[in-house]
């Protein structure tokens, strides 16, 4: 599934005052987050049902993974949004598995090459049963990118920006963790170096709280803030999205 939409800004009138709402891709991520979670889970369920007859088995080691990504492009006076969904699979039963996260980031790279644009992934949702990391033995609360394939082939190769938000969710859509790619990179590097980092908080969502994420974002960041104005404005938008997805916990920024 892929969708594109965009506008640089939207103006609304409040009495005699005119307010310009800057387009914020991280607000768009929060707005679309409930749908991205549903799409990733639906893809995962379909993969499990089709696995027995599929030419590309969807299970790596007896479990199933669905993922959704949101990317944006800023070209001239237009902004575009790209949303994709994928599942883990294998080209052949005895071949190496291709993670859903890698399938998505590879597709974005192909789209960029063919279109001449640069879609930048800013949010990645991953749903699957929590599994121990094969290479390190680390057992996270949710299903993280693996250190064996995803970490070196996606994060270390720069297929996502360091501030890309990675949202990992259990299949019941409740237990959720949020971190940026840079933090996953540092966590696994610490494990390799014999040190143990701290996991992000685990937030317990329900159906209502998923739909309230964008409202929480709006409480943190004024709609007039332009995230493209400066690196600090972008950092604030990323952090606001993280906090909103965590249900308002972990606020580490102050906005005027």
Give structural notes.
The chain has a single domain (25-207), classed as Cytidine Deaminase, domain 2 (3-Layer(aba) Sandwich). The protein contains seven helices and eight strands. It has helices spanning 25-50, 100-115, 150-155, 181-192, 207-211, 213-220, 231-245, and strands at 9-14, 17-22, 66-75, 78-87, 120-127, 165-169, 175-180, 203-204. The strands form two sheets. The chain has a six-stranded mixed sheet with strand order 4-3-5-6-7-8. The protein has a two-stranded antiparallel sheet with strand order 1-2. α1 (25-50) packs antiparallel against α6, α1 (25-50) crosses α7 and α6 runs antiparallel to α7. Mean pLDDT is 83; it is low at 1-18.
Summarize the structure.
Helix content is 34%, strand content 21%. With 256 residues, it is α+β, with helices and mostly antiparallel strands.
Strand content: 15-25%
CATH topology: Cytidine Deaminase, domain 2
pLDDT averaged over residues:
83
CATH homologous superfamily name?
A: Cytidine Deaminase, domain 2
Multimeric status of the protein: single chain
**Gross morphology:** globular
Total number of distinct structural domains = 1
What top-tier CATH class fits best?
A: Alpha Beta
Which percent bin holds the helix content?
Answer: 25-40%
Query: Strand count, sense and closure of the main sheet?
Result: 6 strands, mixed
- Using the 3D structure, state the CATH architecture: 3-Layer(aba) Sandwich
Fold blueprint:
Elements lengths: L8 E6 L2 E6 L2 H26 L15 E10 L2 E10 L12 H16 L4 E8 L22 H6 L9 E5 L5 E6 H12 L10 E2 L2 H5 L1 H8 L10 H15 L11
Parallel strand pairs: 5-6
Antiparallel strand pairs: 1-2, 3-4, 3-5, 6-7, 7-8
């Amino acid at each position: 599934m892929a969708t594109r939409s965009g506008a640089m800004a939207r103006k609304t009138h409040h009495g005699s005052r005119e307010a310009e709402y800057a387009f914020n891709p991280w607000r768009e991520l929060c707005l679309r987050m409930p749908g991205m979670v549903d799409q990733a889970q639906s893809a995962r369920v379909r993969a499990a049902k089709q696995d027995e007859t599929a030419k590309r088995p969807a299970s790596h080691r007896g479990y199933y993974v669905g993922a959704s990504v949101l990317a944006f492009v800023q070209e001239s006076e237009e902004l575009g949004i790209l949303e994709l969904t994928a599942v883990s699979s294998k080209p052949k039963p005895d071949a190496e598995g291709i993670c859903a996260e890698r399938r998505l980031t590879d597709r974005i790279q192909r789209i960029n090459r063919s279109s001449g644009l640069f879609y930048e992934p800013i949010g990645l949702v991953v749903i699957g049963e929590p599994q121990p990391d094969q290479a390190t033995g680390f057992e996270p609360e949710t299903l993280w990118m693996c250190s064996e394939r995803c970490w070196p082939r996606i994060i270390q190769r720069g297929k996502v920006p360091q501030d890309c938000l990675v949202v990992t969710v259990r299949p019941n859509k409740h237990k959720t963790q949020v971190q940026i790619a840079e933090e996953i990179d540092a966590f696994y590097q610490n494990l390799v170096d014999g040190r143990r980092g701290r996991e992000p908080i685990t937030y317990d969502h329900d159906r209502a709280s998923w739909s309230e994420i964008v409202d929480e974002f709006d409480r943190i960041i004024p709609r007039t803030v332009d995230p493209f104005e400066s690196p600090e404005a972008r950092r604030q938008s990323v952090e606001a999205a993280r906090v909103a997805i965590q249900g308002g916990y972990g606020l580490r920024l102050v906005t005027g």
